[in-house]
Amino acid sequence: MTTDAGQTPLTIDELAARAGVTVRTVRFYGSRGLLPPPVIGPRRVGHYGPEHVARLALIEELQRQGMTLAAIERYLRQLPADLTPHDLAIHRAVVASWAPDAMDTVSRRELERRAGRSLTADDLERLMAMNVVMAAQGGRAGEECADGSGDGDSDGSEHGDAFRVDAGLLRLGVELLDVPLSQEVILAARKVLIEHSRAAAHALSQLFRGEVAERNAQDVRSLSAHMHPLVVQALLTTFQRSLREELSGWVSGSGAD
Q1: What is the dihedral of CA 243, 244, 249, 254, to 10 degrees?
Q2: pTM, to two decimals
Q3: Structurally, what CATH architecture does the domain formed by 12-98 represent?
Q4: What pLDDT score does 187 carry?
Q5: Helix or strand run (H / E) with residue 107
Q6: Cα–Cα distance measured from residue 25 to residue 113, given in angstroms and rounded to the nearest whole number
Q7: CB–CB of 57/15 below 8 Å?
């Protein structure tokens, strides 16, 4: 395994901080084969890259779904060995799509721990604009949060604030903080995705409703259980290919100009 060209390699401490886990956890996953070995650099220091970050994010998502460590090991063994960080992110998106909406109330310190980085006031503003994070009503210093930390600062500083966070969207929102797009463009893109997703869901619902209108309740439930994952996978795959084609044409056109 090699780190991607142009990417600054991470030490194990930096990887753990980026992923929001402990160094001990990273080493444990490595010993179980859940993470590929690092690239050994000068002074025998292990270097980690985007693939490690993406795999840790996928493992975290699988754990959030309630999978045991043995089940996660089986899942990862079934994946192709040459998956890129982008491919792993797609797998995580599919897994996360089955997660129920979950809003946790956490302290500022816990929010930053889950984000794997410090969050500036501007970062929080962008996360709130994307509806990833919301200020919890009445959440101030010294209050014990749902995560049980109760680590609010007694001086009432910003680290004592409480926030409502969408656990399923937090990592995506944090990644968008580093995307070189304005907040206006990100919000406009979110609006486009929501509008077209709802339109597609409505059209498919009408199509399937006509198909099952004359069937009994058991057949309807069976069809729904089978179609849900198939439709999600089909939509994701189709959109991914369409977006790749659009971006490739745009980049090629820009290069020609």
Answers
A1: 100
A2: 0.52
A3: Orthogonal Bundle (1.10)
A4: 81
A5: strand 103-107
A6: 14
A7: no
